[in-house]
DNA sequence: ATGTAC
């Protein structure tokens, strides 16, 4: 399965530090451009074939890009960014978004520092351990009353959650798209996807998803950190999760529909996992409508988990949590960007890549206009997470990395360490752990991942973003 | 990532 690896490993040249180019050759329509250090690139060479494959998509403009955390994915590499020109027959591909549609990160800052939290950390972690649903399968902080309410969640995202009393208007200003993506079309969401989503609203899921209590360990840019609401020593809560079974089912359903449609439209791709359809054709519109519904479900999910964390912090410490930002790293969006000196309407796929708007961007709320968009990079359990900001002239349609990639399979990781042993190690390092399963915990051991700090350094070196702060965990809630 | 396969 996977890519047709007929060609040898793609040849690339180092164009400038942290920037490598794969020259176009048939059937590529554009070059490939990979942002990485030499070391990170060496680990990812196999995935360059996927960068090449993406470069063949109808309507692609600029280049087929990859971020420093590139690794093998379904069709597109994870860490891939590709934009297609909608008016020129550009396509949308579910593989360019991924199975976990709108997976992303939300960061909240407490009016409390680590010394203030220390005596209550155990109680806070116990509280979070009780109220944060996690692990595979059903369970969520919201009992959705029925199909009609699920439709409202799919249409309204975080905005709907706030309208129902779960958060305030300020939260929405600090969410990408104001908390809800326009154009959600619940009619394009199958019965099966709805069934899977009904019982999971407000849940973490499993794998690398988590809720962490963190502290700001290092600030690299005081002024920007202050604008984001962050200061050294401050306690934060980071939530990393997506659209659970609903997004997964939507991806499956629409990959199948597009696979069938491609033959009718005469579109050929080098890998069936790149199934796609023109944005303005029925299958393209249907996917984008369903994808937006899943995106909103994912944002409501994070809004509700944040509210649950707020209640626990309020009860155990009296502290309030204010939203720094909420941003997705698995999404396709319609955005305007210059192409050959002309502004064009593009479908920008970001899969394991984060939008990073620069200072002054009109879509940023007033209070972030001078600082740029907060970019939230979740680290591996027990290590650092990072806060970045967008920079002027950012390449790849203003995109940057999203996190650390795996270097060990789940199986390898579980063989390398037991869950109980790992928990003991983390606790002795000062990280409180509340996990759902020992096996799941072991699979997420830090040794199984690349160092996210290297990824962030390469992203900054490539001119994609700038570092603002580094966060370290005090406690982790895991699926 | 995912009721870790239809």
What does this structure look like?
By secondary structure, this protein is an alpha+beta fold. 33% of the residues lie in helices and 26% in strands. It has one domain (8-407, 449-478): tRNA-splicing ligase RtcB, CATH 3.90.1860. Strands 7, 8, 9, 11, 15, 16, 18 and 19 form an eight-stranded mixed sheet that branches. It starts with 12 loop residues before the first strand and ends with a strand. The model is unreliable at 1-7 (pLDDT under 50). The structure holds one DNA strand of 6 nucleotides. It comes from Streptomyces aidingensis. Its EC number is 6.5.1.-. InterPro entries: RtcB, RtcB-like_sf. The active site is at residue 402.
Query: Which sheet architecture does the biggest sheet show?
Result: 8 strands, mixed
CATH class identity: Alpha Beta
Supply the CATH architecture. Answer: Alpha-Beta Complex
State the low-pLDDT regions, or none.
1-7
Class per helix and strand makeup: alpha+beta
* DSSP summary, beta strand count: 19
At the fourth level of CATH, the homologous superfamily is: tRNA-splicing ligase RtcB
Quaternary organisation: single chain
Radius of gyration: 21 Å
How far the N terminus sits from the C terminus, by CA atoms, comes to: 29 Å
Mean pLDDT, all residues: 96
Described by the principal axes of the CA atoms, the overall outline is: globular
Can you count the helices?
15
How many separate structural domains?
1
Helix content: 25-40%
CATH topology: tRNA-splicing ligase RtcB
How much of the polypeptide forms β-strand, as a percent range?
25-35%
